[in-house]
Give the backbone structure.
Amino acid sequence: MTPPTTLQEALDGAAAASGLLVASDFDGVLAPFDVDPMAVRAAPGGIEALRALAGLPTTTVAVVSGRDLDTLRTLTRLGVDEPIVLIGSHGAESSDDEVRAAMEAAAVTAVDRQLLESLTTDITRLISDRHPSAALEHKAAAIVVHTRGLPPDDADAAIAEARQLALTHSGVKVLKGKSVLELTVSHADKGSAVTALGRARDVTARVYFGDDVTDEDVFTRMTRPDDVTVKVGSGSTAARYRVEDETAVVAALHRLASARRTAAATS
């Protein structure tokens, strides 16, 4: 079976699936970037479209992010009782019990925590001494260097030096994003978590929107003919389709919700 030529055709096909998973990254996909990582807010209509989809029969909806779970819930403003799954820390955390159970094999060990403590000490010293304009974010299994808003040369230097320092700590995984470098001891990834969620909900079609390097872990796993993978913005990708920005993502989600609603009404 050959995948549809256009995203519109692909979404219409996914809408008719007996079981559908719709998942999306948050920063740069549902929400525009901001110099202050905690000032990020979802684009108008995005969360509403996810809520509409989550309210439809046999439809699972998830927001997947590198953010830790508590921060992701704060920024999305999704309540704990809402039927939208949150997957944080690149798959290491989830609000869904079945995903958490599936990801236990990637859990952080005591040795990993010791490694993170040593890494955090070194990275904090580096940024404080040489790149004080960069910001640090501390997660349960990672330390993150944010350079958004810095002059390009300063940002490049901070990222390069932090990466080089991380490489002196065996066992640290380096995740480069847009104006961000995450140094993690977690063994999880977004692709594994999204796959686990789809398997747990017995879906027959999966839709995923992502913009960053870590989303490629999802794109490369979603290779079934009915899968719809969407890259947001420029850059090389394994995704089958591409849209320009967050506004286009919101429009696509609303279209998918409408088509899914129609399919449910006629089934």
